[in-house]
Specification:
The protein is α+β, with helices and mostly antiparallel strands and 100 residues long. 18% of the residues lie in helices and 49% in strands. The chain has two helices and five strands. The strands form two sheets. It has a three-stranded antiparallel sheet, covered by helices on one side. A two-stranded antiparallel ribbon has the order 1-2. The longest helix is centred in the middle third of the chain and has 10 residues. The two termini are 13 Å apart. The model has no long low-confidence stretch (mean pLDDT 87).
Length: 100
């Protein structure tokens, strides 16, 4: 098993009060991580991740230090919610860990 920090967007609910006393709810998302164990047998490919969207890149810059590197893990299997996950770590780090 390989322990990774998966990057995902978490939705937060904020309740604000208007001047007339009524409340309204605002939802916002923030990028955060969660620890995850992945069976190495299900990893099909590892790619260095490049952010294509300026909005996503801005959210990442706010959440992580400037020099943080990311990779995309491509997973095999129909039981996963999605086949690609974004993880914290450099491509070189995963090459060393998976290249045993």
């Amino acid at each position: 098993m390989l322990k990774v920090s998966e990057v995902y967007e978490r939705q937060y609910k904020t309740t604000n009060e208007k001047p007339d006393g009524s409340e309204h709810v605002v939802y916002a998302t923030r990028v955060t991580t969660r620890d995850c164990l992945i069976n190495e047998d299900y990893i099909v490919a590892v790619h260095p991740h490049e952010f294509r969207s300026d909005i996503t890149a801005r959210k990442i810059e706010e959440a992580f230090p400037e020099s943080t590197k990311f990779c995309t893990l491509v997973l095999d299997g129909n039981s996963f919610r999605k086949s690609e996950i974004l993880v914290v770590g450099s491509f070189e780090k995963f090459c060393k860990e998976l290249g045993k």
